[in-house]
Protein: Integral membrane protein
Amino acid sequence: MIVPRLAPRGVPPAPSVVRAAGLLVVAQGVAGLVVAAILMVRGVGGADQSVVNGLGTAIWFVVVGSGVFAAGWALMTGRRWGRGLAIFAQLMLLPVAWYVAVGSHQLLFGIPVGIMALCALGLLFSPGALRWAAGGDQPGPANAASGGPESR
Structure:
């Protein structure tokens, strides 16, 4: 297993709840990339009515899956920018899970997706994650005279 460096130089590592949320988000990103590969193979193989539709959907899943994967990796390595992307992805997954479970009557797929999104949101909005996101682990008060990006 690849173990990411816990945090950028000089920045304390993220709390365990943030790293756990990052792991969930990475798994979602990997799932998106796997779906992209499957759609690509199906599109090239002629399983879709139009090759353009299959390949276009595959490219969409590559873009979204890569972004979600990057957000999860950022959370696992203590970079705060991944939190916003991860929260957005989870909020977008909730209606998808509802549609899959209720609209398509595929409870076996919709319920786990919904549970995973709710768990990730719960972890990202936990007290420790909120303190971390607010920069509560930064040394000293913010200083406008400092040129660093974490100074304000």
